[in-house]
Amino acid sequence: MQMLLLILTTLIGCLHLFIMGLEMFGKVEAQAKAFDMPLDFVSQASAQTALGNQGIYNGLFGLMILATNFILPVSQAAQNSFMTLLMLFVLGVGLYGGFTATKKIFLMQCVPAAIALLLIFLV
Predict the structure, then answer these.
(1) What's the rounded Cα separation, in Å, for the pair 62 and 70?
(2) Distance between CA atoms of 120 and 54, rounded to whole angstroms?
(3) What is the tens place of the pLDDT at every residue in 93-118?
(4) Keywords assigned by UniProt (predicted)?
(5) CA distances (Å), 92 to each of 32, 34, 100, 123, in order?
(6) Residues in Cβ contact with 14 at an 8 Å cutoff, skipping those fewer than 6 apart
(7) Which end of the chain is more exposed for a tag (fewer CB within 10 A), N or C?
(8) Is 13 helix (H, G, I), strand (E, B) or coil?
């Protein structure tokens, strides 16, 4: 079960890096489609600045998840405790985004984070 948790949380970390890439470097058409926003809005300079800012958060958060899995030399209990906090953060942000931005966020962020939290508590 610990291996399944490692795989799932690694995928969540990689997802956040992918979202960062889309927010910071993606074409406006891809951004508009991915985030269910009008193309004319996403094309505005202020929207691009906001997406870039959000991208930094997602990228650093993805790196934090991956660092927790592979770099930080801590006990399994400490790693699970820290990962619980990270997954609660993903769940909270996903809930907010799902209610305010697009319902796809529930499936893309909330469901994997909830499964990871369940696995943490079962380990």
Answers:
(1) 12
(2) 27
(3) 999 999 998 899 999 999 999 999 99
(4) Membrane, Transmembrane, Transmembrane helix
(5) 23, 20, 12, 22
(6) 62, 66
(7) N
(8) helix
